[in-house]
Amino acid sequence: MAALRSLRLTSLSSRSFSTTPRTSLAKMQLIGRLADTPAATPTSTGRDVIRYSLGVSSGSRDESGNRKVSWFNVASFSEGPQRDLLLSLPKGTLLYVEAEAKMDTFQTQDGSNRTALNLLQRNFESLSRPKVDNLEGEGAGSAVEEPQSGLGAS
Question: I need a labelling partner for 57 at 20 to 30 A (CA). Which of 28, 97, 103, 111 fits?
Answer without folding.
Answer: 103
